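Structure first, sequence second, as always.
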C-alpha cells in the first residue's frame, strides 16, 4: 500500500515567512488602478453576456476597455520615466 504524503510547502503556503515583501506590496499598490480597471472591464463583459446585448452594454464595455487601456498607458509611462522605483 502506497502512502499519500502532502508537500509541506503546499500545505503551509500562507505561513508567516512566505508573506509578500514590502516591495511586492508596493508594486501591487502601484498597479491597483489597472487591476480595478480590468475588473470593471470583466464586469462589463459579463453583464453584456448575461443579457441580450444592447447599445448601452456596448458603450459600457467600450468605456471600460478605454479606461483599462488608459491606466496601462499611465503605468507604462511611469515605468519609462523611472517613477515605479
Amino acid at each position: 500500500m502506497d502512502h499519500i504524503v502532502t508537500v509541506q510547502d503546499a500545505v503551509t503556503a500562507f505561513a508567516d515567512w512566505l508573506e509578500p515583501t514590502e516591495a511586492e506590496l508596493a508594486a501591487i499598490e502601484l498597479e491597483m488602478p489597472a487591476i480595478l480597471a480590468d475588473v470593471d472591464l470583466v464586469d462589463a463583459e459579463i453583464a453584456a453576456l448575461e443579457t441580450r446585448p444592447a447599445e448601452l452594454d456596448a458603450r459600457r464595455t467600450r468605456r471600460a476597455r478605454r479606461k483599462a487601456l488608459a491606466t496601462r498607458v499611465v503605468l507604462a509611462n511611469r515605468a519609462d520615466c523611472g517613477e515605479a522605483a
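Margin note: The chain has three helices and no strands.
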